[in-house]
Design a protein that fits this description.
The complex is a heterodimer of chains A (390) and B (64).
Chain A: H1 6-38, H2 40-47, H3 65-75, E1 80-86, E2 92-98, E3 109-114, E4 120-124, H4 130-140, H5 144-172, H6 187-201, H7 203-235, H8 250-260, E5 265-270, E6 281-287, E7 297-303, E8 309-312, H9 317-330, H10 335-361, H11 368-389
Antiparallel strand pairs in A: 1-2, 1-5, 2-3, 3-4, 5-6, 6-7, 7-8
Chain B: H1 2-30, H2 34-55
Classes of the chains: A alpha+beta (390), B mainly alpha (64).
Chain lengths: 390, 64
């Protein structure tokens, strides 16, 4: 690190200062909303208790999905089905209905069914629960796709702030032992020590959560890119054909996908959708059964009229990378103790943000750059002195 | 010589903590049971260091 000249250290320091300052307010929102989101499942259980599905013997077959969709359609005559999804944890089926092809989350309504008995359990508004509102603030500050992209830019700035912070940590700590906390010094020095200590100790976690946050923010445009590249090829043979008047059976679509990919689990079925997917196909989303492959989805495109498989397309590497990286953002892959640890790291990061902001607000007339110069030149002198005596 | 020594002094502890945190991130992905427990243990290390250093007595030291 002695190779860092005073000039490059100043540059890194400025990068750290400006990237941090720009993203701090957004990062505070992300951290504060992230805290309850770590416990999203538990909060949903407590805040919106749901009707439990029936206890059935193992091996009980699934009920008819087409009948569930018909029931949901009768229940919400003014809405159209958007997708059918299987709950990961309980034998439940969500039939989500929407007023438009690309609805806001708050506009959708869902009827939940027992997967085995086919009985309607309850109607919910998925976008109106506490955690989904907090999630929209966390992901897009209530501003839709532009908000999501803005949060992505902030995540990028945060990642740069973390890396540049690690670089300037060296020069600042040259004369100090690891973990020095000078409590008897001025408040500013005390907070400076805390910022350095908490920052360096949580560095890896902050980097990983920031980088995966950036990846997640890119998922909507990247999915759009994949769709733009894939759909014209798939739809070319159907040129000039209008949307199907009568949709084929969802149960047959699921059966066809199961037969084609016997080792996979069916996760959900998307209805034909000219905006989000394909106007002529059901998409049966399948996933693997191991901890890693259960996060990798393979869409099976099924002609909505004939029920024939049109294509099985594993997602491209960039979407698979995002899918596999998700647990590193959510911290939901190691039980409740991991969630608690995740939340504690989140709190520590809030402390880094606030102490960093305090250090900037309480900056003195002598710029920190000069202090850095002094530290670096001090180091250069001692190093060359050491080299001479050797 | 002096270069690597200095890096170790300034970044040594930070590098060890980073490696342990990285282990914590990966372990829980490998499977349940013992892997989860290893992950919890690894994640607890940086937090324990934090509490130790913050609550510890004034440990200001100049290394000349």
């Amino acid at each position: 690190m002695n190779s860092l000249t005073a000039k490059t250290v100043r540059l890194w320091y400025r990068i750290h200062k400006w990237t941090s300052l720009i993203c701090t307010a957004f990062l505070l929102v992300a951290c504060l909303t992230g805290l309850p989101l770590v416990f999203q499942d538990e909060l949903d259980q407590i805040l919106s208790p749901h009707v439990a599905p029936a206890q059935v013997p193992i091996g009980t077959p699934d009920a008819n999905l087409d009948a569930m969709v018909a029931t949901a359609q009768a229940h919400f005559p003014n809405l159209k089905p958007l997708f059918v999804a299987f709950d990961d944890d309980e034998p439940r089926v969500f039939v989500t209905m929407s007023p438009s092809l690309n609805p806001k989350p708050s506009e959708t309504q869902a009827l939940i069914f027992d997967r085995h008995t086919g009985k309607a359990l309850e109607a919910v508004r998925p976008g109106r629960s506490f955690t989904s509102i907090v999630l929209r603030l966390h992901r897009e500050i209530f501003a839709g796709l532009p908000g999501e992209l803005l949060m992505g830019v902030m995540a990028l700035l945060f990642v740069i702030a973390v890396v540049s912070g690690a670089v300037v940590y060296g020069p600042f700590m040259r004369k100090l032992n690891f973990g020095t906390v000078r409590k008897d010094a001025s408040r500013r020095v005390h907070w400076f020590d805390l910022h350095n200590l908490v920052g360096i100790v949580t560095l890896t976690w902050a980097f990983v959560v920031g980088a995966t946050g950036l990846l997640n923010a890119l998922s909507t445009p990247l999915f759009g890119l994949w769709r733009a590249q894939t759909m014209p090829v798939l739809l070319a043979p159907y040129h000039g054909k209008s949307a199907p008047q009568h949709l084929g059976s969802i149960d047959s679509a699921v059966a066809a996908a199961t037969k084609a990919l016997p080792g996979m689990t069916i996760s959900s079925v998307t209805f034909p959708n000219a905006v989000l997917t394909s106007p002529l196909h059901y998409i049966v989303w399948t996933k693997g059964n191991t901890p890693v492959t259960s996060r990798l989805f393979t869409p099976v495109l099924i002609d909505a009229e004939t029920g024939q498989i049109s294509a099985i397309r594993p997602l491209p590497w960039y979407l698979r990378a995002i899918e596999v990286s998700r647990p590193f953002h959510f911290g939901d892959y190691g039980g409740m103790p991991l969630k608690i640890l995740w939340a504690l790291f989140d709190v520590a990061l809030i402390a880094v943000l606030i102490s960093g902001l305090y250090l900037w607000l309480s900056r003195r007339r002598t710029p920190v750059e000069d202090e850095l110069d002094r530290l670096v030149s001090f180091e250069a002198v001692t190093v060359s002195a050491g080299a001479l005596t050797r | 010589m002096s270069r690597s020594f200095s890096f170790r002094k300034v970044y040594g502890a930070a590098t060890v903590i980073a490696a342990i945190t990285f282990g914590g991130l990966l372990f829980a992905l490998f499977g349940d049971g013992i892997w989860d427990e290893l992950s919890w243990l690894a994640f607890a290390v940086p937090l324990a260091v934090l509490i130790w250093k913050i609550t510890g007595k004034n440990n200001h030291t100049h290394v000349e």
